[in-house]
Structures are given as C-alpha cells and as structure tokens.
Write a structure and sequence with these properties.
This protein has two domains: 106 residues, no CATH class; 90 residues, no CATH class. With 206 residues, it is mainly alpha-helical.
C-alpha cells in the first residue's frame, strides 16, 4: 500500500495526504504521520506545518456535507437514502445525541462536541461528530464551529506526538492503522452478534 503512494504521489505528496485525510475513521490520525513518514516519502516528506495544514483542510472539507446529511436524516427528508438505513444511523448515535442534549447551555454542548472530535481515536473524528451534531438541536454553524475547533486540537495533538518523538511518525502510523483495523473488526463482529441474537429471538423474521 505504501509503495503505491510512493510510486504515484512522490511528486505531489500533499494530494496523497489530502485524500487520506478525507477517509472516514482515518482522517488526521493517519494523514499527519503519513505525511511525516520519511520511510515512505524520503526527501519528499512534508514539513510539519504543511502536513498539519493539508490534513486539517482535508478533514474539514466534508464536514458541511455530513452535517447536512444528518439534518436530512433527522427531519426524515433524505429521499435519496432508504428509510431503513437512515433509521439505523439515527438509532446508532441516539445515545450520544441524548448525552449532548443533557448539557445545560449551548456553550456546554459545543464544548462537549469539540472535545469528542478532539480525541485522536477511531470513531471520534469529524464524521461521527458531524452526525452527532447534525442529529442534535444545535444550529448548523455551531456544529461546524465546534468540529472545526475539535479537529484543530486533534491535528495539533497528533502533530506534537510525531514531532516530539524523533522518527516516530512511521511507527505511529502503523500503530494507528492497527488500532483502526481492530476497531473495525470489533464493530463488524458486534453487528453480526446483534443480528444473530435478534434472529434467535424472532425466528419468524428469518
């Protein structure tokens, strides 16, 4: 995989980093160490500032679309998304939306959302934050601003880890990829378990 990027994007590393930052669950957690990995790019490796800026921009590009889609799901006006799927999305994030709604003030809700996005872990990025914020009662610009602040902090944390520990970017990249893969496998197995359990309880639906 790394050879593919090195062979095809060595003259435009920023574009490769931008594309990686756009990927759900991956985002800046992978994009920044990817941009700073000398083992992949050699002398074409990006500077820390450039890696930060390109990753941040790449992560923020789909935010408005994610919030808009979440609002469509919430208002049941997303005719291009089947009702069954939209209901699954709504149910999956309902607990976090409810927790967000328990905050007393708008400022507390924004801080909670920004803090959630700021944690550089799988399933806590702009896509999840955008869905949670879009399904909440916060205004569009409040959700967008909260995610922008949270993602800025997340990018900064990842960048500092890669810079403070010399030559750690590539190893941080590998470790993060492994964690993302494990989380993905866990979610798949959990969904399968829930479906099997549901079928056992309701055999007439099989």
């Amino acid at each position: 995989m790394f050879e593919f990027f090195a062979d095809n994007f060595s003259s435009c590393v920023a574009l490769a980093v931008l594309l990686v930052a756009l990927c759900p669950a991956v985002e800046s957690k992978i994009a920044i160490p990817f941009a700073l990995s000398v083992q992949i790019w050699g002398e074409n490796v990006l500077s820390p500032v450039t890696a930060f800026l390109v990753s941040y921009v790449g992560c923020m590009l789909p935010v408005a679309l994610v919030i808009w889609l979440a609002r469509k799901i919430k208002n049941k006006t997303c005719g291009f998304v089947c009702e069954k799927y939209s209901q699954k999305v709504s149910d999956r994030y309902q607990m976090r939306v409810k927790k967000l709604g328990e905050k007393n003030s708008t400022l507390q809700k924004c801080v909670f959302l920004a803090s959630f996005v700021a944690v550089p872990l799988p399933m806590t990025g702009i896509y999840t934050g955008g869905l949670i914020g879009g399904l909440s009662n916060l205004k569009f610009w409040q959700v967008f601003a909260s995610i922008a602040v949270g993602e800025f902090v997340s990018c900064l944390v990842v960048l500092l880890i890669c810079v403070l520990f010399e030559n750690s970017a590539f190893y941080f990249l590998i470790a993060t990829l492994i964690i993302c893969a494990l989380v993905l496998i866990y979610n798949i197995l959990l969904n399968l378990f829930v479906k099997l359990k549901s079928k056992k309880k309701n055999p007439e639906n099989i």
